[in-house]
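User: Okay, second chain of the day. Same drill as before: sequence in, structure tokens out.
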Amino acid sequence: MHDILRERILRKLDALPEAQVYQALDFIEFLEARYAADQARRPDGLQRFAERLEDSMRVRNVAPKVIAGTVGALGSARRVIQDVTGVGREFLDAALQPPPAGTPVTPAPPARTTEPPRLRETNPRPFPPPANGREDG
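Assistant: Same drill. Structure tokens below.
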């Protein structure tokens, strides 16, 4: 679909009341199932969840404004997750690329061959002598 047609469809949908937008969605899904079932893109997990939630709310005759608010919140969460995922991918891509030629590589620090430091005693003073002067108590 070219951009002009996509923009035209979106403009027409924006002008409709919420209830009629759902009727248009039902018709589009019918056309998709009939003519393009194997060409449809599969939505991601959060998108599928939001769509199923939206459909179940519609079946229960929940007000369109409530549905829009609920699904809108899920859409916002989805965008945040996509942004975080994108930043993570960019970070990993940058971290996994080799350094440019001519960049000095710092060697890794040598491995430890000594024992780890021992814990010091909590009471460094010797025990006091027994009160009766004998060691065996």
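Residues 64-96 form the longest helix (33 residues).

User: Thanks, on to the next one.
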